[in-house]
Amino acid sequence: MSTLRRIATTRRPVDDREHCEMCGEPVGETHPHVVNLDSRALMCACRPCYLLFSTEGARQRYRAVPERYLTFPDFQLGPGQWEELEIPVGLAFFFANSVQERTVAFYPGPAGAAESELPLSAWGSVVALNPGLTSLAPDTEAIVIRAPGAARAVADAHLVPIDACYELVGRLRQVWRGFDGGQDARAGVQSWFARVDARSRPYRPAAPVESASSARSGPPRVPSEATVQ
Q1: What gap in Å lies between CA 160 and CA 165, rounded to an integer?
Q2: Which of 30, 34, 85, 102 is the most core-located residue (most Cβ within 10 A)?
Q3: Residue 202 binned pLDDT confidence (cut-offs 50, 70, 90)
Q4: Dihedral sign, CA of 115, 160, 50, 55?
């Protein structure tokens, strides 16, 4: 009885660390994520579990979230294109949902991430002006666009991991005040974009693959002195 009493009164230490939701192993404060393609829920993962779902082209229920950040220095948004997207605020995230086979838009608000249920047929015209936007990975990366406004004369766009988007939305939900979010929300957006800018590298189109015929034609011809300007 004394042994049972001792076991019953002994408290196990509380483990408040975050754990991998795939295998249960502890993970650090900064850790990768995977996406459940059916529910679109983010799951914390240790590095080994993360790598299991990082194979490109593999058909799996989960997919690893990449860690790249890109900026589009030549991004264009034509007159009226933002209004055609029918996004009610000046900031939105766009990602390719492979389950629904369509582009989905969501934007921050007082209740968290609000998904646009409006037709996004106008998205095609934005991509036509900016072909680099098609480089994002489905389900795991997003294009974040800020429309022109009082603080910006022109729109800008970044490619970011999808978990970075939900991080921003979650932080804004905690500080959102009033209709437009208030000063704290605006400061949170500016801080988030400062970190994104610091991590981003400019988008560069992939170099065209050299055809077999051009490879057999030998090295490029060196111009003679008469043709050099």
Answers
A1: 8
A2: 34
A3: very high
A4: positive
Regarding pTM above 0.70, the answer is: yes
**Do 108 and 44 share a domain, yes or no?**
no
Q: Please check whether residues 117 and 190 belong to one and the same domain.
A: yes
Segments of the chain assigned E as strands: 33-36, 42-44, 62-64, 70-71, 91-97, 102-109, 112-115, 141-146, 156-161, 201-202
Q: Is residue 226 part of a domain?
A: no
More confident residue, 15 or 74: 74
Are 75 and 48 found together in one domain?
no
Q: Determine the 3-state secondary structure of 50 from DSSP.
A: helix
Domain co-membership, 104 together with 163: yes
Mean pLDDT of 151-160: 88
pLDDT at res. 179? 74
Q: 23 — phi, psi (to 5°)?
A: -125, -10
125: containing domain = 70-202
Q: Do 90 and 190 fall into the same domain?
A: yes
Number of structural domains the chain divides into: 2
